[in-house]
Amino acid sequence: MMKIDDINHRILRELSRDGRQSNLDLAEKVGLSPSACLRRVQELERSGVIKGYRAVLDPALLGIGFIAYVTVGLNSHTKPSQEAFERAISRASQVTECHNITGTVEYLLRVEVADLVSYKHWHTDVLGVLPQVQSITTFVVMDSPKDLRA
Known about the structure:
CATH topology of the largest domain: Alpha-Beta Plaits
Structural class: alpha+beta
Strand order of the largest sheet: 2-3-1-4
Strand content: 15-25%
CATH superfamily of the largest domain: Lrp/AsnC effector binding domain/regulation of amino acid metabolism (RAM) domain
Number of helices: 5
Number of domains: 2
């Protein structure tokens, strides 16, 4: 496992803020020479600490006007049931996140669609027809004052 020292933490924090900044700018911000900074970033990438770089998209400009977190309880707590559910969810483009969680339900989903009508269609005709699903609870996102997902 790679050692994450204070300098690596600073590199990761800066890259989380702006993954497109130049190595020169990054090196200056974290107090390293450009070559030392590049070596550290490459090692963070090779070791898997940095898994990739992403663009942060504006949902509204993409026509996404309805975001919800959805909890899903399964009617069977077997591995085959979970695997079948996860396969079905992996095919649903509306689901941007799927987490297997502990508690009274098995899954937490983030669903992004155009509007309430689109969500109702997905809820009823996609999620609601999966044979593994026993319960569905929807939490509508009204605002996101803090969202560090990238």
